[in-house]
């Protein structure tokens, strides 16, 4: 079964104009009716670093989860943020961005990779105590623009370290749109075979015309967890290319359906969410 993770947090977080809290909540409430496995709805990080997400706790208080089967995921960058997120029973998953690039880890979380690994262990322990699941995103998972070391063997080393911490979900993140289908296939096949108890996912930033071969490569290699954002809003400013955005969920769904995968989404609610997305991000 394919798991679809809808990421309004990633779509919203980089926008300069602050999106009203009530509008955020209305949009996420609509997404919760579609039938996604998980909705990545917000983050408990420094409001100075990500001002758009400063109202995550308030947004959460406005969400109607009673009629939704979707689970909630929030991003954290340190133990303080994790403790704040774990206060809310409604949150199922905490996500932590671990980078294969030392440069990007410092820029993203103000930590070294080694410090970030210590933080992951601390957050993992907290999650186990509270009955939550930690999702680790391996950012710069397919290369980086900084000249930092990168290789499939380095990826395998990171995965081993996370497996030693009993991390159960790892999502390879193509932060700058550099992933090639052959590399995608290699990473998923090798790591999934080596660590069958880990659920491996994909968080792509890519040009729309490059999406299909990347998704097909991941599918063929056994990936069953995909992140997306309606209409492809968002993406990483480090890409320095406005066309390199999040995977448009509607395009991802189309590819999956053409490959014979059922998504079990409510098409009417999805259509309403698409209309609302156009308003929220206009």
UniProtKB/TrEMBL annotation:
Any GO molecular function: hydroxymethylglutaryl-CoA lyase activity
Key words, A-Z: Lyase, Metal-binding
Domain of life the protein comes from: Bacteria
Pfam families: HMGL-like
Domain Pyruvate carboxyltransferase, first and last residues per copy: 1-271
GO terms classed as biological process: ketone body biosynthetic process; L-leucine catabolic process
UniProt key word Lyase: yes
Lyase among keywords: yes
InterPro entries named in the record: Aldolase_TIM (IPR013785), HMGL (IPR043594), PYR_CT (IPR000891)
Family: Belongs to the HMG-CoA lyase family.
Protein name (database record): Hydroxymethylglutaryl-CoA lyase
Organism (species): Cecembia rubra
């Amino acid at each position: 079964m394919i798991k679809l993770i809808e990421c309004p947090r990633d779509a919203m977080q980089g926008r300069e104009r602050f999106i009203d809290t009530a509008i955020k909540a209305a949009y996420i409430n609509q997404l919760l009716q579609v039938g996604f496995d998980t909705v990545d709805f917000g983050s408990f990080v420094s409001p100075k670093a990500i001002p758009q997400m400063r109202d995550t706790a308030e947004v959460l208080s406005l969400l109607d989860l009673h009629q939704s089967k979707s689970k909630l995921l929030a991003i954290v960058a340190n133990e303080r943020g994790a403790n704040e997120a774990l206060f809310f029973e409604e949150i199922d998953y905490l996500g932590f961005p671990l980078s294969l690039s030392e440069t990007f880890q410092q820029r993203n979380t103000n930590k070294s990779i080694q410090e970030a690994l210590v933080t992951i262990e601390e957050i993992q322990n907290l999650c186990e105590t509270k009955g939550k699941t930690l999702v680790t995103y391996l950012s710069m998972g397919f290369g980086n623009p900084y000249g930092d070391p990168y290789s499939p063997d380095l990826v395998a080393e990171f995965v081993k370290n996370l497996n030693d911490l009993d991390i159960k979900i790892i999502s390879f993140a193509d932060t700058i749109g550099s992933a090639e289908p052959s590399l995608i296939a290699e990473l998923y096949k090798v790591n999934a075979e080596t660590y069958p108890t880990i659920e491996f996912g994909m968080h792509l930033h890519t040009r729309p015309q490059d999406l299909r071969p990347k998704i097909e490569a991941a599918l063929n290699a056994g990936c069953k967890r995909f992140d997306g954002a309606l209409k492809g809003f968002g993406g990483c400013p480090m890409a320095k290319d406005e066309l390199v955005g999040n995977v448009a969920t509607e395009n991802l769904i189309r590819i999956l359906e053409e490959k014979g995968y059922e998504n079990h989404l409510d098409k009417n609610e999805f259509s309403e969410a698409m209309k609302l997305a156009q308003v929220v991000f206009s």
